[in-house]
Amino acid sequence: MTSRRSAACLSASLGALIVSLLLEGTIIAQDCSILDLQFPTASVTATQDRDRMLCLLGIKFPTLPPRIEDPNRPVNAWPRDPANPEGNWTDPRGHLVTRTPFGLWTTYDSDSGAQGGAMSGYGDYGPFSTPRYTDIDLLKMKDGTPVTTAEDWWTKRRPEIFSLIQQELYGRAIDPHIPINWTVSAITTGVQTVNGVDYPYRQKTFTGVVDTSSYPALRNTPVITAQCRFPAESGRRYPVIITYGEGVSRFQYTAPYGIGVCSYNPTSVQPDSGGANLSSYLIGLINKGNWRKPDDPGALVAWAWGVSRLIDRFATDPDLDAEKVGVEGHSRYGKSALVAAAYDDRIVVVWPSDAGALGTAIARRHWGEPLEFVASSTSEYHWVNGNIMKYMGPLNPGGYIPRRLELLDVDAHSTVALIAPRAIFITNGTDTPPGFGDAWADPRGTFLSGLLASPVWELLGWPGLIIPPGTVFTSGPDESVGGTPPFNVAFIDGTIGWRRQIEGHTPVPNWPTFAQFAARYLRDERPVIIPNQKFTVAKGSTNVGKVAAIDPDGGTLRSWQITGGTGVGKFSIDRSTGQITVKDPASLDLSDTPSYTLQVAVGDGLLMSRSETVTISAATVQLVTTATLTKLADGSYQATVVITNNGFANAENVRLTSATLGAVSATSLPVALGTIPAGGSASVTLQFPASAGPSGSAVIERYAGSYAGGTFLGSIRARLP
């Protein structure tokens, strides 16, 4: 565990970073002449690149009054340096208070009034407050249509949210098929001692050099690197947690659970800076060295892409299990960890530690770092896409709050919900020391993202965030109105976990809880649906069949759901049994569409299976006859007749009742053939007299018969042998 002193040092270093960001963030100069530069060069600055995006979108910084004269300034805040009122301000709680280039002040309303944090004059304007931004209901489509079933979520609402997340916040997903040349180092060994227990380990480093042949002029080659430490015993594949650069020493927390750790270096894929770097490395590669477009990805998506490519590589590794991967990142890397899990459903469990603005903190709320700061700061704008800049500034000309945030269709809880029903552990800290800790990352706003996303987990059949009734929430001058569950208490009974550390802006105190939480899912075996299952349905019937699946752990299968397919809306599945039925037999057109597909999935209470496709076809019988003729020694003819069922239903009580060769009939008819299953066949040998004709004569063979519910006919042009 980190001591209070070391945690304070971490917070102090964060505070120094915030100070530099805030000072930079107040710059309001804007130069649109950069639009005349058709192609970016290695000398483009972050300010030039940011301004170009603003100008491209037709956005200009407003003219603002001096801070000391600003009518929207917090009434209980003042310049930290009275001689420099245009610098950073502070408040009675020691918070850092600043103003964005679009005039929004950083505020920290509490229930202590002027004795608490800087007051906006409007409250936090977030969820559960009055007034507030219009609620974004995750279980309603953008047009207001209710989302009432798991099928609605998978086939309608989730795709809508994912599209909006890419358009409005983070940028489009990056092609997963860009070639990568992988090398793996030799394995080293060692022992890590945890609480007096020795844990032998093996260790190796993955290096993936991204192929730049699609744009050879790229200035810098993106490289994926990860050092991995995992249990020493060979002969099995281990679950693993990919952490954003925290080092393999985090194995001390996962070793007791038999889980490995990989320390991933995101900045060798895409640097944590804007300007010229956005036309190089991975983002430069996909844009072939050109400027970013408004919906192009930022660094958060680029870093997440590197995580996904590591998972690709683990699929062929003898030591690490690509089916059992967790991801952890802290602060800005917590934002990217969240994005990674939202964009890649192979990630089993994710921990976006203290992820704050444009991570796990609600953006449509005013407490701590605002969206406007991220989108306009030359030290942070590169994390996200350009379109996000459209949501800066007041909603109404000449107004202050509400801001254009009202126009956002998605928020942090929307991104969190994309992870459902997988596991997520959400954390935040305290403002330790005051002004240099997690007030900037908005602890209550972070808590709310999990709380507001919980209904999606519940819709899918998993528990969301569980806070026991009677839990006393935090309050006081340092706390947002409404507070959070108490400090240093782990709430991990649900699939959404929560813990708020007392130590400030650091992940260290939460690692033991996360390891325990993650092990629950990473050590579970995912249910498996038997592949290539086929069913038939008769016209007018509701019954289709029961999907078969197994749980390797022997757990109870539950939460069956339809996740896609051409049969969406026409069939339903029983959540408990996997029984598929027709929703409305009268509206099921089996003549024009004789076959449908459904993607189905099932859970075991912890993990959901991969979706498998089942096929549902019209219960039709289609009997086709073929025959082979042979001339016997006595001049008669023998026909070997094969009747094949090319339909989707079994043909029962099949009888061959008539067979003619030219003008003569076969003997020994009728013949009972029993049941011919779908795709199966039956054969019978028939005799025809020599009077059918001489060898070489052209004749027509005709066969007829019946089966339960119908008849069949067949004719074959033949030449007598």
Task: List strands and helices in order, with pairings.
Blueprint: H1 4-25, H2 46-56, E1 78-79, E2 89-90, H3 150-170, E3 180-184, E4 188-194, E5 197-210, E6 223-231, E7 238-244, H4 251-254, E8 260-264, H5 281-286, H6 299-314, E9 320-330, H7 332-343, E10 347-353, H8 371-376, H9 412-417, E11 423-428, H10 443-460, E12 496-500, H11 511-522, E13 528-529, E14 534-537, E15 543-546, E16 549-550, E17 558-564, E18 571-573, E19 579-582, E20 595-603, E21 612-618, E22 623-631, E23 637-645, E24 651-661, E25 664-665, E26 671-676, E27 681-688, E28 698-707, E29 710-719
Parallel strand pairs: 7-8, 7-9, 9-10, 10-11, 11-12, 14-21
Antiparallel strand pairs: 1-2, 3-5, 4-5, 5-6, 6-8, 13-16, 15-19, 17-20, 18-19, 20-21, 22-23, 23-27, 24-25, 24-26, 24-28, 28-29
Helix pairs in contact: 6-7
